[in-house]
Amino acid sequence: MNTPREKRTPRAVRFLREFVSKRMKTTEVSISEAANSMLWQRGISKPPRHIRIRVVKDKEGRVIVFPGEGK
Length: 71
Fold this sequence. Notes:
By secondary structure, the chain is an alpha+beta fold. It has one domain (5-67): CATH 3.10.440.10. Helix content is 35%, strand content 18%. It is built from two helices and three strands.
C-alpha cells in the first residue's frame, strides 16, 4: 500500500511473479486468467490484501499460477 493509487494492482502482479519465481526457481511464470481477474476485480487502486494461489510447474520448467481453494 506504499504505492501511488494508480499503480497498486500492477505492482501486486509484479510482486506475485517475483514471489513465485523465487519459490519455484524459474523465470518463466504465467498467471492464469482466473488469478489475474481475482487481482483486478476491484480495479487498479484496490488490489486484495491476501490471495491464495496454487502453483503448478510442468516438465519444461514453466510455472502457472492458479487461484487457490478456500477464502
